[in-house]
Amino acid sequence: MNSGFKLAIILVLSFSIFSCGHRKSPTGGEVDKEKPTVVAVTPEAFSELDQNVVEITFSKPIDRSSVYSGDGGIYIYPLIEEKRYRWSDNTLRIEFEEMLYPFTNYYLTVSRSIRDLRNNQLDNDYLFVFHTGMLATNRIAGNIKTELEEDVGEEVTIAVLSADSVRVFSKKVSGTRYSIEYLNDASHIIRAFIDTNNNNRYERDRDPFDQHEVPPGRFHEVDIYLEYFDDTKPEIRSVNVPFRNQVLVNMNKPIVTVAEIQIVSEDSLQTELEVLNYDFINNQIEIITEPMDSLRYKLTLRGIEDGKDNYAEERVHEFPASMLEDEQLLRIDSHVPRNGAVVENLQPVIKVRFSKHITTEFISFSLIDSVTNAEIPVEIRRLDSRTIAFTPHERLTGRRSYRLIIEEESHDYSGNELEEQLELNFLPIAEQ
């Protein structure tokens, strides 16, 4: 074997070795993480579908399988069964091969489930409205309210469905109001929920939800109240007794109704402790009783119902008594209107909130005309266990000052008087 032939073999082997060590594809630079967008749609949104064709142009090449997979990246309502998709570079052409309904809005949803060739999802869900004949402009709007305060302002998914529960389109809104526009003159179902775990679907056991059926019409005001599903029955978790005339029953949820409350001593006499008053405060039932004189009691609640129609026939709990007297002074925590305010009502409702459970019989008060010093007849009523409303029997004289006085001798169930007198001055004027 001559030296030239040996050199040739060495070169071949060297080329093979270096080739084996570089089988990876080139990196191609930085990874593309830019989301595709919809840059154009033809015809323009709110235009007439007179050519039975819609073209959607994306900012990047699209993985076409993502347009057709699952529920599809493209959704049209009313449903069009006969249609053809054609691609030209980044533009998708949708040709409708069936007659469209006359005088009807069509809704084209381009879903964020669509991906580009690097698996980046579309930046948003897009909704385009087209029409045949005249554009329909029916509208549904309303306030958004939530069961839990922490859900106020959270993004809400609102799905619009036909009367037979076929999806029309969906949208996401934030804030305390929503508006759904350009609806056909037909019945609709509105479903709303907060997607608490961001999985793009409603889960009954964890997401607050509401639904309404809305009849045809140019405009409907429909408020949404988002509440959590709950089918558990009311239960007593614990009982606290801070004072000898107060029992706090801690429930597993807020309660709205109790048909009967009975407290009986746990001794041979089984003496019933009189219940003077009670109130529902969040997850707690506050019960005001006669002073306790036994060591232990049994509480029985009957006919318990929460705000979602969950019902318990009876719940029983034993608890030790307290001999501690409540000696804390009664206070006024807040009032509406504020002192010195102008009130645009000649028969205003003045609300005063106390620090403890109270009733109207315990309040000493007067409403005085500041010009004549005459006392004005007042209706007094209890809004809840701590809030009392005062309303003049007759309309007051406009632009004349009045003062509501709540005397220090006002007291709570334990006889504790008001910490200091309240003098609330206000000026009523006629409503503008």
Blueprint of the fold:
Layout: H1 3-20, E1 38-42, E2 53-58, H2 65-68, E3 74-77, E4 83-88, E5 91-96, E6 104-110, E7 126-132, E8 138-146, E9 156-162, E10 167-173, E11 177-183, E12 188-193, E13 209-214, E14 219-221, E15 224-226, E16 236-243, E17 246-251, E18 255-265, E19 272-273, E20 275-281, E21 284-289, E22 296-306, E23 311-320, E24 332-336, E25 341-343, E26 350-354, E27 365-369, E28 375-376, E29 378-382, E30 387-392, E31 402-406, E32 422-428
Parallel strand pairs: 8-14, 8-15, 25-32
Antiparallel strand pairs: 1-2, 2-5, 3-6, 4-5, 6-7, 8-11, 9-10, 9-12, 12-13, 16-17, 17-21, 18-19, 18-22, 20-21, 22-23, 24-26, 26-30, 27-28, 27-31, 29-30, 31-32
Written description of the protein model:
The protein is mostly beta strands. Helices cover 5% and strands 45% of the residues. It is built from two helices and 32 strands. Strands 25-32-31-27-28 form a five-stranded mixed beta sheet, with no helix packed on it. The protein has a four-stranded antiparallel beta sheet with strand order 1-2-5-4, with no helix packed on it. Strands 8, 11, 14 and 15 form a four-stranded mixed beta sheet that branches. It starts with a helix and ends with a strand.
The number of helices is: 2
Which regions contain 5 or more consecutive residues with pLDDT less than 50?
1-26
Q: Tell me about the biggest sheet?
A: 5 strands, mixed
Classify the oligomer.
single chain
Task: Give keywords.
45% strand; 32 strands; four-stranded antiparallel β-sheet; five-stranded mixed β-sheet
Concise structural overview:
With 432 residues, this protein is mostly beta strands.
